[in-house]
Structures are given as structure tokens and as C-alpha cells.
Design a protein that fits this description.
This protein is an alpha+beta fold and 571 residues long. Among the domains are: 106 residues, Butyryl-CoA Dehydrogenase, subunit A, domain 2; 110 residues, Up-down Bundle (Four Helix Bundle (Hemerythrin (Met), subunit A)), CATH 1.20.120.470. It has 18 helices and eleven strands. The strands form three sheets. Strands 3, 4, 5, 6, 7, 8 and 9 form a seven-stranded mixed β-sheet that branches.
């Protein structure tokens, strides 16, 4: 029996070395929940055992059940007729298999039937599901909807919906995008209004809605008449009903197993979820942290699948009387692919740890009566760190997935362009990851403020203070040189006080920061496992020329650079 967890040495290393002690204890109320719920862990060792046990179950389901069905699901996909979406039978079976594994409410509280797992562990599940079938992750990953109801809904809404999500009885959709409002959510126009009895209704259109045929919908709508910006938006929860019409589903390049729908709201009954006028500024911003992580994990899963197939093919394919993995041009590609995957995994789970700590401390600030100054400071700190790491991670993971999928086809040669091998599906599926839930360019916009304000500084200095010796010390010194240049570049851009120039070089600055941060994470992991030294060395040496190129672009520019770009475009 195959298993995507036990066969993935790096994922096992990540779980074993990921410090979730603080987040786990706070989620479990210092393990007091064990007195009330049989499934709750009694200490951190017990929690770790739970995480590993569940991940093994999910890993087996993904490898033995979901992955073998992926090609047929991709070929057939959902069916749409007379306003009804019907999922392909194997997709339905995949969802049932995950429900039977007991992971439909992975992050929900024990009292609602959930596992109360940290986001880090749930993300490991989504990574494995994505490796098996990337489109299925778009259904499994919608657990963030239940989390949003848990965080912002009324007690009645929580009691009504959360047990149903945890048991798998209902599924969800997050209805944000509109035909004329893509990433610019402040311009959402779908109208929310109340009748004389105070009942809310929704009227308007939504587009590109993943799983738009769901039973429960979270909807961003304009609740304040006369407003045109984000302050007039609120979040609502509604259910599938005749007034909520699926007009069509999209015919997509990839991610074929899940329906992406256009919806028409014809006075759909709804309930306010969270504070009025705070739908975008609070609920959606919280959702975006989860969405960025989910798509990062989806991208990483696709990259892992593409690498596995490329390596397997290279070992089996013979040319000139030897397997092609023996040719330097091929094994160098495989080495680069593997290094990028390991580096991305290091960044992803450092990011999820920050999100877990952000969650537990912000929950304390909002609900704990005797909050201390230290706890309040920690909440502010982890909010800042998560705000810069989640977009940085999403940008790196999705770009890496596209490159690895591209290289996997190259290693397959002409056969990779055919549907006889799964790498063409990985290539199609990867392409959307750096577009939806915010393009790479928008992730840069989200991250640049934190980079300019040095939000990663404390963690970078903490990592640099680790006791490196020998080659690792020399590599650390190289990364330290990167960091000195990064600080110089940030100062150079800040002194200009030109927002357009900052926007022009923002991607360089964010990528430079990522090289530094990930380089230090790779060195940290090499301290724990000497076998990883070669990975750290390859990553940092590959990063050196890329870092220097970006540094020179930032430092050689002046205010005429913008005009030069326009001249090139107009040529």
C-alpha cells in the first residue's frame, strides 16, 4: 500500500521538527479539553501522535484511492444541465473517502465534532490531497468557510453549521468575485438589503465561484446604500435555494474535477455573518490568509507530483544505452526541481506556524478577559509576520509549481506533451495557482509593505544566531551578505519616496527577502539533519546570481527608469 506521508521523507521531517508546542497548547486550552472530549490530546506528545496518525491515514487515502482516480476525474469532470451541477462519481467517492477518514472538520473545535488541529497540520493534508488530485483540494480546502463562520458567526450560526461541516453533511463556497470585480473586491456590487422585518436578502451576480453549487455560501455583499468602497461591504451566510441560480460552469484549462460557477442571486434569503461593514476589512482579510496557504499547499502538492513522475520517467527511459537520469543535463534539472520543492516546503510551514500563532493570540485578544500586555504584543507581532509571509509564500510556491511542472514535461520530452502521462495535467493544473486567490503580482503588493518595514527582521536575526560551523557557517555568511545588501536596497528605495518606483522594484525586493529568509530556513534544517547540507548549499548557490541580478536592478534604477519601461512597451 502506498502512502503520500510515510513515503515523503521531507514531509515527515517537517512534521517532526515543526515547533507547534505553543500553538497546540493554546488551541487545546492548555490541554484542559482532554477532560471534556475523548479525542482531545492530554499533552503535546499526545497531540503530535494524533497529528502523525491522521496524516498517515490521509496519506494512504490519497495514494491508494484518490491519485489512481485523478486521470478519469480530469477527463470527465462535473456535469451541468438545467441549472444543476452533478459531480463525477469518482469525485463524490473521493469526498466520501476523506469524510470517512474523519478530516472534514480538521480545524474546527472539538465541541462541533472537529479535530481542532493547527493550520500547519491541515495544510499538510491539503498538500497530499493536491498531489493526488489538485482539483479535489479545491473542495477539501473549502474548510476555511467553516473556520470563518466559527470566527465571526453568531452562536446560533455556529451551532447550526459547524457540526454539519465537521461531519461532511454540507459543503461550502466562498462567493467573492464578480464579473466586473476581480481582485478589486472594494468594488463589489452584489446588493444586500433588509425588508421591514429585518430579514436580509441578496441580489446580484458572482463569477468564478469554486464549488458554486455548494449547500452553504459565504457571500461578500454591499450592505450600505450609497457606498462605493470596502467600508460598505458585509459578509453574509446563505444556503442553496431556488433563488440562488447556477447560470453556468466554466470550461477551464485545468482543475477539471471541481465546478467553477457563475451565480445569480434573485433575492436570496441570508444572514449577516460578523460585524456589519466589516466584511472586507476583517472577514475577507482573515480568509485571505487561509486562502494563500491553501493555494501554496496546492501548488506544492502539484510540484511534488510532477517531480515524482519526472524522476520515475528519467530512471526508466533509456537513450544511448543508459537511463536519461544519468545525463548531467537531466539530473541537474531534477536536482534543481527537488531543491525548489524542499525550499518551498520550508517556507510554507514556517508561514503556517506564524498563522497558527497569529490565530491563537488574536483569539485571546478578542475573547480573553484578563489579556496581558505580553499576549497583546505577541498578537500584534504575529499579525505582522503572517501578513508578510503568506503572500511571499504564495508567490514562491505557485511560481515554483509552474516551473517544476514545466521541467517535468521537458524531461519527458515529446511524450510529456501527450495525455499518456500525467505531467501534462500537472502543467495545466499548476497554471491557475499563481492567478487565483491573488496573482503573484498582487502577492507582491501585499508583501512589500512588510518587507519595507522589516517585519521579518527578528526571525532572520534569530536564525542567523544559530551555531553554524564549517560549510554551514560559510553559507550563513553568504546569506548575511545578501541581507546587508537587502537593507541597503530597502533604504535606497525608501529615500526616493517615489511610490511608482517602489512598485516597479517591489517584486525584486520581495524575492530578495525570500532568498534570505528561505536560505536561513534551509541552513536551520541542515543543522538538524546533515543530509540536508547539500540541499542548503544548492539553494543558496543558485540564489546568489538571482539575488545579485535583482539587487542591481533595484540599485541601478532612477526616476527615469519608469519612462524607459514605457518606451520599451511602446516600441
Amino acid at each position: 500500500m502506498a502512502n503520500f506521508f510515510t513515503e515523503n521523507k521531507d514531509l515527515q521531517f517537517t512534521l517532526a521538527n515543526l515547533d507547534l508546542k505553543e500553538a497546540s497548547a493554546l488551541r487545546e486550552n492548555n490541554y484542559e479539553y482532554a477532560k471534556e472530549f475523548d479525542v482531545a490530546p492530554c499533552d503535546y506528545a499526545d497531540a503530535q501522535d494524533n497529528y502523525e496518525r491522521v496524516l498517515k491515514v490521509v496519506g494512504e487515502v490519497c495514494a491508494d484511492n484518490i491519485a489512481p482516480r485523478a486521470e478519469e476525474v480530469d477527463e470527465n469532470g462535473p456535469h451541468f444541465a438545467d441549472g444543476v451541477v452533478t459531480y463525477y462519481p469518482l469525485t463524490v467517492q473521493n469526498i466520501k473517502d476523506l469524510d470517512n477518514a474523519g478530516v472534514s472538520g480538521a480545524m474546527l473545535d472539538h465541541k462541533y465534532g472537529g479535530l481542532n488541529f493547527p493550520a500547519s497540520v491541515y495544510t499538510m493534508m491539503t498538500e497530499m490531497v493536491s498531489r493526488a488530485d489538485a482539483s479535489l483540494q479545491n473542495l477539501f480546502g473549502l474548510q476555511d468557510i467553516a473556520e470563518t463562520i466559527s470566527d465571526y458567526g453568531t452562536q446560533e450560526q455556529k451551532d447550526k453549521y459547524l457540526p454539519l461541516f465537521a461531519s461532511g453533511e454540507v459543503d461550502g463556497a466562498m462567493d467573492l468575485t464578480e464579473p466586473d470585480s476581480g481582485s478589486d473586491l472594494q468594488s463589489v456590487r452584489l446588493r444586500a438589503y433588509q425588508d421591514e422585518n429585518g430579514q436580509w436578502f441578496l441580489n446580484g451576480m458572482k463569477r468564478f465561484i469554486t464549488n458554486g453549487c455548494a449547500k452553504v455560501h459565504l457571500v461578500l455583499a454591499r450592505s450600505e446604500e450609497g457606498t462605493v468602497d470596502g467600508r460598505g461591504l458585509s459578509m453574509f451566510v446563505c444556503e442553496k435555494c431556488p433563488e440562488l441560480v447556477v447560470r453556468r460552469i466554466e470550461n477551464k484549462l485545468g482543475i477539471h474535477g471541481v465546478a467553477t460557477a457563475e451565480l445569480q442571486y434573485n433575492d436570496v434569503p441570508a444572514e449577516l455573518c460578523g460585524q456589519r461593514r466589516r466584511g472586507l476589512t476583517k472577514a475577507v482579510m482573515s480568509l485571505m490568509n487561509g486562502a494563500r496557504i491553501a493555494i501554496s499547499a496546492q501548488a506544492l502538492g502539484i510540484a511534488e507530483a510532477a517531480f515524482f513522475e519526472a524522476r520515475k520517467y528519467a530512471e526508466e527511459r533509456k537513450q544511448f544505452k543508459k537511463s536519461i537520469d544519468k545525463f548531467p543535463a537531466v539530473y541537474d534539472m531534477l536536482t534543481r526541481m527537488k531543491t525548489k520543492i524542499v525550499a518551498t516546503r520550508a517556507l510554507l510551514y514556517e508561514t503556517t506556524r506564524a498563522v497558527d500563532l497569529r490565530y491563537v493570540y488574536t483569539q485571546m485578544v478578542e475573547h480573553k478577559a484578563d489579556i496581558t500586555v505580553e499576549e497583546r504584543q505577541k498578537a500584534k507581532y504575529w499579525v505582522r509576520v503572517a501578513a508578510v509571509l503568506t503572500p511571499m509564500c504564495k508567490a514562491q510556491a505557485t511560481e515554483v509549481a509552474n516551473q517544476v511542472a514545466y521541467d517535468a514535461i521537458q524531461i519527458h520530452g515529446g511524450t510529456g506533451f501527450m495525455k499518456d502521462f500525467p505531467v501534462e495535467r500537472f502543467y495545466r493544473d499548476a497554471r491557475i495557482t499563481n492567478i487565483y486567490e491573488g496573482t503573484t503580482q498582487l502577492q507582491v503588493v501585499a508583501a512589500i509593505g512588510g518587507v519595507m518595514q522589516h517585519h521579518n527582521e527578528d526571525r532572520i536575526k534569530e536564525l542567523m544566531a544559530l551555531p553554524f560551523e564549517g560549510m554551514l557557517a560559510r553559507l550563513k555568511d553568504k546569506v548575511a551578505t545578501f541581507y546587508e545588501k537587502q537593507l541597503e536596497a530597502i533604504k535606497y528605495v525608501a529615500v526616493k519616496k517615489d511610490t511608482e518606483y517602489q512598485s516597479l522594484v517591489a517584486q525584486c525586493l520581495v524575492e530578495m527577502e525570500a532568498f534570505i529568509f528561505v536560505g536561513m530556513l534551509m541552513l536551520r534544517d541542515a543543522l538538524k539533519d546533515s543530509e540536508r547540507e547539500v540541499l542548503a548549499e544548492r539553494y543558496i548557490l543558485d540564489a546568489e546570481s538571482q539575488f545579485e541580478e535583482r539587487f542591481m536592478r533595484v540599485m541601478s534604477g532612477d526616476l527615469t527608469t519608469i519612462d524607459k519601461h514605457r518606451e520599451i512597451i511602446d516600441y
